[in-house]
Design brief:
2 strands, 71% helix, transcription regulation, mainly alpha, TetR/AcrR family transcriptional regulator, transcription, globular
């Protein structure tokens, strides 16, 4: 379910006009980009400006910034689950896993930014999303290990932490991350996970 659909489901009633739905879509896109760039300091005013709507329109369409961020977080996690489902359909378990890993790292960085902006507050649907994601990751790792393409001595839970460590801060010990730093980190992690003949 998309963030827009989640917002609409919270307020049952007549189907909104097309322009109202477009405003909601713009607010969701704006919230995702604002959190990615601003982080925890994102405001309703900034999201409204990025969406090209007034603050009044923001509050007519969305009960609160927290509500908007919550549905955005759930949407991002659902996208990660969908990426895992696509990876599970790949006949090559290792290729499926590596495709998921790349998608997951980018979505995880976004979801962590939204969750941080929410102050770590969760919902029942958030727990469902996380449970679905854990189950998919366990399956992906299991498939790759069963066919011999991934090292069998690494528990799937460790893989979750390895992937979480791929997305880095912009700076560390006085060094600035390269624009493709997460790609380079991911290649190193995958190189450590692949089974050697």
């Amino acid at each position: 379910m998309t963030a827009v659909d989640r917002l609409l489901a919270r307020e049952p009633g007549p189907t909104p006009r097309a322009d109202a739905r477009r405003n909601l879509e713009r607010l969701v896109v704006a919230a995702r980009s604002a959190v990615a760039e601003t982080g925890v300091n994102v405001t309703a005013q900034e999201v409204a400006q990025r969406a090209g709507v007034g603050k009044g329109t923001f509050y007519r369409r969305v009960p609160s910034l927290e509500t908007l961020l919550q549905v955005v977080l759930e949407e991002v996690l659902d996208e990660a689950v969908a990426a895992a489902d696509r990876a599970l359909e790949n006949p090559d378990p290792w290729r499926g896993f590596t495709e998921f890993a790349a998608a997951y790292v980018t979505l995880r960085k976004e979801s962590c930014g939204v969750n941080e902006a929410l102050g770590g507050a969760g919902s029942c649907d958030l727990e469902r999303c996380l449970g679905d994601l854990r189950e998919r990751l366990r399956e992906l790792v299991g498939r790759a290990q069963d066919n011999g393409s991934m090292r069998a001595d690494i528990p799937w839970e460790d893989v979750a932490f390895l992937l979480a460590g791929v997305a880095t801060a912009d700076r560390t010990i006085g060094l600035t991350a390269a624009p493709d730093q997460w790609h380079r980190n991911l290649r190193t992690v995958l190189d450590g996970l692949v089974a050697r003949p």
